[in-house]
Amino acid sequence: MNKKKMIRLTALVGVATATGVVAEANQAHAATTTTTETTNQTTNASVESTQAAVDAAQSTFDTAQTSVDSAQANVTSASNNVTSASATLSSAIANKEAATPENIASATSAVSSQAVVVASASQAVSEQAGVVSAAASVQASAQAEATSASASLSSASANVASATSALSAAEAALTSDQSTAANNLSAAESAASSASAAVSSDQAAVDNAQAAVASAQAIVDAVAEVQSSDVINMSAAYITALKNYLANPSSANAAALQEVAKGADYVKELQEKFKSDASLDVVDPSDPAVQEALSVYAVNLINHLRNQYGLTTAFGASANANVAALDFVKKYYDDKNWNIFGTTGSDGQGHNKNGLDAYAVQLNTSIAEDAGSGLTTWVNGKATMATTTLHNLLYAVYSDIATMLFDDGGTNNWSHAQSIFEDGTILGTDGFNNVYLGVAFDKYGYAHYELYNATEGNQLGNNAYSLDVQTAAQTLLTNAQATLASAKASLQRMTTNLMVAKAAVVAAQDQLAALENSSASDSAAVTAARTQLESAKTSYQTALATYQQKEAALEKANDELANVQASLEAAQATLATAKAKLAELEETVANLTNADQLLAAAQAAYEQAVANLTVATGNLEAAQVDLAKAEAQLALAEEAVEQAEARAEIAIQVDQQLNGSNANDRQSAGQDATSLKTNGRALTATVATASAANPKRGADQGRLPQTGADNQEASAMALVGLGMLGMATGLYGYKKKKLTK
């Protein structure tokens, strides 16, 4: 039977007694009132008594818990001691088994050998300590010398500072006029130097301008020489044959065109019109002025031919097209070592078609390329890039274009002539509606004629050249001459400035000399101070050299001391290791020699540890029993408090029901008792309120049997409460006896 069940059954025992109390209340109200007050006092005393019992039980429980914790710690400690003693015993047993005469003798021998090692290591430590002592002595001496040298250096430095101060004072004694004169001389010399540099710069500009004039004059002369031969004339028969072939490139038309072309003796014409002129200066084909002359010359030749052919659209020439031509030839011929003709004209690599495609994509335009033998011809010999003149270049352009017309059959299939005479297309490729020509020579001396379709987007037609070659050449010469004149004028101005500056220098020197003569004493003082300063500086340098030498010696001594100290520490470490090993070997000998005593001691310690563990375990079990009893007693005491509190609450409620709300009602005690029986619903409500104030007690009431109608249920609960009032003392004693048995 559990505790809760037992409490509920005990509460039901007082029903008959409660009924009797109600009957007595009906008979005499005054007597009932007195009984109720007495009952209230009794229940309150019961609550106080049971709470004191709870406090005592709680104290007993706490003491028991402390005893259990202490006993548990003792058991843990004793268990650890058993484990340790067991390990020691196992070791002693193993030591006993190993303690044979042979092992003892071997261990003793090892001790002797190790003692020799220790002695040797100790001797090494002693010897190294002597080395360290000697090195320390050397280091101390070096330190003293370095300290002395440092003091000497400080003194010498102070002397330099003093001499510097004396010189400053002596120089300050000179008149401000002398200082001003010296500054004037310095400024005059600086101005003269600047003027001289300006003269040199302007002279270089004049030289460059003269070279530009000479180059422009050469272009003018070359243009003047060839201006009468800047056209190539085609016969009517040739034009007709070429048109027939381009309209229908059949074998018959090709043969007819080839037959007509043979009648043009352009080789003889070249030799007559272009004569060698050794007086012309060497030029760079990539020079912008030279490129302009070549491209304008080539475009004029081509446009004259297109006019004879009956075409009205002309090719153009521009600086942008020339720049693009130079860039293309460098990237796809020079940088790639691409020799278009080879050495014989027939063993070359031909056009770089992949390069043309790539460059067309880069510029977003259409590109066609014609190439000629350029500086390498079989008519007038070969001119190298290092020796070529503008005359050679113009000759090459004329020769290439003439060859494209009259010697372009065979494998070329007149493709060069086709590129010159097509309109809106070149070699069958559309997109050539605004053709600009760029001319460039590769590093092998071959000429490249790049035909670009210029658009507003690619700007290849920008910076266009005038096609009046004679005027352009003359303008180039005029501009160069103007530049030369300006450079000469600037040179003249700078030369004059230089003469003025030099005169100012002479004047400043004279002024300074006069002032120096007039202040000879001050100058002598300055000279003496300077001599003193130089002497102090010399002494300082000597002291510095000595200091550096001593510092180097000290550093060397420090390094040596550190090295020998490290060796000493290593020797000491070796000695410590040897001693530790010797102690270990000696301990082994001692263990083997005293194996019996060690085993006996270990056995005794183990047995004692086991005995201690047994005692500690027993103590723990006893403490746990006491803790269980204290816990049970605490539970009973807490239940008794709850019961006492519940009885006090019911007594208060019954008193309120019996007494009523005013003095007149007390005269109707019999009626109140009857009302208590029949009007159970009001009492039930009051008890429910009290139960809400004490949740735990209410929970116990909630588990009472519920039978019959509402009025019967309320009356039964009231009777139970009255019965509990009469049984307070007896119930507590009964419960305690049962639970602590």
UniProtKB/TrEMBL annotation:
Matches recorded under InterPro entries: LPXTG_anchor, Surf_Exclu_SEC10/PgrA
Sections of the chain in a coiled coil: 477-654
Keywords carried by this UniProt record: Cell wall, Coiled coil, Membrane, Peptidoglycan-anchor, Secreted, Signal, Transmembrane, Transmembrane helix
Domain of life from the UniProt record: Bacteria
Any one Pfam family match given in the protein's UniProt record, by short name: Gram_pos_anchor
Keyword Transmembrane recorded: yes
Signal peptide stretch: 1-30
Residue span(s) of domain Gram-positive cocci surface proteins LPxTG: 704-741
Transmembrane segments: 714-734
Designated name of the protein: SEC10/PgrA surface exclusion domain-containing protein
Organism name: Limosilactobacillus fermentum
